């Protein structure tokens, strides 16, 4: 997998931390200083637990964390809309942070740091805009919003039924 394509893994399961398995068993090796505060004390255990099943470990370099103070005013579980002036302002700031990364490796490190802290819908939008506007990432085929956030388009009862079927019916009989 090329370095640029590894960026697309950050769209996979956006409400889970970056260090969890993504795609076809890829795991980001997140530096301890990039972990959210609640995971820092148990970082080694987390990497051992989630790295066991990895087919490939993707190294993430250490960076100076960007200033996210204004951006964090939008909570992780709040709705995000470009029609809200404050949301437009913070999305512009986050896009500039992504565009300022000097290369793909810095962009990956910045995105991993940001992804685990900011609103997932805000991250998806701003990271998509940045990838489309950067000269080194323009040709990436970005995933559709419906693939990233199916819960926004499918009735929640469908997920409950699917979970029930998955737990009851053996895999070969589904």
Keywords, please?
single chain, 174 residues, mainly alpha, Hemocyanin, N-terminal domain, 2 domains, 43% helix, 5% strand, globular, Hemocyanin N domain containing protein
Description:
The protein is mainly alpha-helical and 174 residues long. It folds into 2 domains: 3-143, Hemocyanin, N-terminal domain (Up-down Bundle); 144-174, no CATH class. It is 43% helix and 5% strand. It has helices at residues 3-8, 43-51, 85-100, 104-115, 120-133, 145-148, 156-168, and strands at residues 26-29, 56-59. Strands 1-2 form a two-stranded parallel sheet. The longest helix is centred in the middle third of the chain and has 16 residues, at 85-100. The radius of gyration is 17 Å and the shape is globular. The model has no long low-confidence stretch (mean pLDDT 87).
- The ordered string of helix (H) and strand (E) elements is HEHEHHHHH
Alpha-beta classification: mainly alpha
Radius of gyration: 17 Å
CATH topology of the largest domain: Hemocyanin, N-terminal domain
Please count the beta strands (DSSP E, at least 2 residues each). Answer: 2
Largest sheet: 2 strands, parallel
Provide the residue-averaged pLDDT.
Answer: 87
Q: Beta-sheet strand percentage? A: under 5%
Strand neighbour order, sheet with most strands:
1-2
């Amino acid at each position: 997998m090329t370095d640029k394509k590894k960026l697309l893994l950050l769209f996979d399961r956006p409400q889970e931390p970056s260090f969890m398995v993504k795609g076809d068993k890829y795991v980001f090796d997140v530096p301890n200083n990039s972990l959210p505060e609640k995971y820092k004390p148990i970082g080694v255990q987390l990497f051992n637990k989630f790295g066991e099943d990895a087919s490939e470990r993707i190294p993430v370099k250490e960076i100076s964390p960007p200033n996210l103070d204004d951006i964090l005013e939008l909570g992780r579980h709040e709705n995000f809309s470009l029609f809200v002036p404050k949301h437009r302002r913070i999305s512009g700031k986050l896009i500039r942070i992504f565009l300022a990364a000097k290369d793909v490796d810095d962009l990956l490190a910045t995105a991993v740091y940001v992804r685990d802290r900011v609103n997932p819908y805000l991250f998806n939008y701003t990271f998509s805009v940045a990838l489309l506007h950067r000269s080194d990432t323009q040709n990436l085929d970005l995933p559709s919003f419906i693939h990233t956030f199916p819960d926004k388009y499918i009735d929640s009862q469908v997920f409950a039924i699917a979970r029930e079927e998955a737990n009851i019916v053996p895999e070969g009989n589904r």
